[in-house]
């Protein structure tokens, strides 16, 4: 790989900015100052910027316990984004695999691997999402059959896919869905005459939210968790 491209990838800078670092003699390869942008580097080379070793990053995979009030986009005029919670190099290069609303909390998966996240978000792949739901009115037993049969969402032509509802309290339930329509859980309960007042995602596929993560905390996914979305 060309050295200027290597610097651009590892430091998140433009090739022009990389060229300036080289001209300013701030880059060493294997202990020697290199000023040529076209210098070729490989896995065996030791590249340093001001004495700081640089390494190409592979794909990154994280789980975040998303707090309330944060959005899953990179830019928002009113709310902070989840990416400000990350103390990682170039967090702007990551994206959320299955966004949550600003007032929804819980398991959020972030990566810079587009093919991997496609396995989570694409309608072609059946990926379960499990939510703990709090409602304004009591959840009635008939909702179980309604959600299993599919409900008609406002503005949608087709019914929702079959969903599993478990009632765990008068106004509390655990809902498992296999699709990710806009505001789907809220709209499903609205379709049966109820209103969601609290929503927390507990699981995506086989990956459960780490109970040791406080709101706003994150950790890398394990190799097993990463591979679980590729095994289908």
Automatic annotation (TrEMBL):
Gene name as annotated = rsuA_3
| Reactions listed under catalytic activity | uridine(516) in 16S rRNA = pseudouridine(516) in 16S rRNA
Alphabetical list of PROSITE patterns matching this protein: S4 (PS50889)
Give, as one word, the top-level EC class.
isomerase
Coiled-coil-forming residues are none
What molecular function terms (GO) are annotated for this protein?
A: 16S rRNA pseudouridine(516) synthase activity; RNA binding
Keywords of the record: Isomerase, RNA-binding
One protein family per Pfam: PseudoU_synth_2
| Listed EC numbers | 5.4.99.19
- What protein does this entry describe? Ribosomal small subunit pseudouridine synthase A
Per the UniProt record, the source organism is: Photobacterium piscicola
InterPro entries linked to this entry = PsdUridine_s_RsuA/RluB/E/F_cat (IPR042092), PsdUridine_synth_cat_dom_sf (IPR020103), PsdUridine_synth_RsuA/RluA (IPR006145), PsdUridine_synth_RsuA/RluB/E/F (IPR000748), RsuA_PseudoU_synthase (IPR050343), S4_RNA-bd (IPR002942), S4_RNA-bd_sf (IPR036986), TruA/RsuA/RluB/E/F_N (IPR020094)
Protein purpose: Responsible for synthesis of pseudouridine from uracil-516 in 16S ribosomal RNA.
Task: State the similarity comment.
Answer: Belongs to the pseudouridine synthase RsuA family.
Which ranges carry the RNA-binding S4 domain? 1-59
Q: Which lineage ranks, top first, belong to the organism behind this chain?
A: Bacteria, Pseudomonadati, Pseudomonadota, Gammaproteobacteria, Vibrionales
Q: Name one GO cellular component term.
A: cytosol
Which SMART domains does the protein's record reference?
Answer: S4
In the record, biological process GO terms are: enzyme-directed rRNA pseudouridine synthesis
């Amino acid at each position: 790989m060309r050295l200027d491209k290597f610097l651009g990838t590892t430091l998140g800078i433009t090739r022009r900015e990389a060229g300036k670092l080289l001209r300013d003699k701030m880059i060493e390869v294997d202990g020697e100052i290199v000023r040529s942008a076209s210098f070729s580097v490989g896995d065996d080379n030791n590249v340093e910027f001001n004495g700081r070793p640089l390494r190409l990053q592979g794909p990154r995979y994280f789980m975040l316990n998303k707090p309330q009030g944060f959005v899953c986009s990179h830019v928002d005029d009113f709310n902070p984004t989840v990416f400000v919670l990350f103390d990682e190099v170039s967090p702007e290069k990551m994206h959320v695999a299955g966004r949550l609303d600003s007032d929804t909390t819980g398991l959020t998966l972030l990566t810079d691997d587009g093919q991997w996240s496609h396995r989570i978000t694409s309608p072609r792949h059946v990926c379960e999402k499990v939510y703990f739901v709090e409602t304004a009115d009591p959840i009635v037993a008939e909702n179980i059959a309604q959600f299993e049969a599919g409900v008609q969402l406002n503005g949608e032509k087709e019914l929702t896919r079959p969903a599993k509802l478990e009632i765990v309290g008068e106004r509390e339930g655990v809902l498992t869905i296999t699709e990710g329509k806009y505001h789907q859980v809220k709209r499903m309960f609205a379709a049966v005459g109820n209103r969601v007042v609290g929503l927390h995602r507990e699981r995506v596929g086989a990956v459960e939210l780490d109970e040791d993560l406080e709101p706003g905390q994150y950790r890398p996914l394990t190799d097993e968790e990463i591979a679980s979305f590729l095994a289908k």
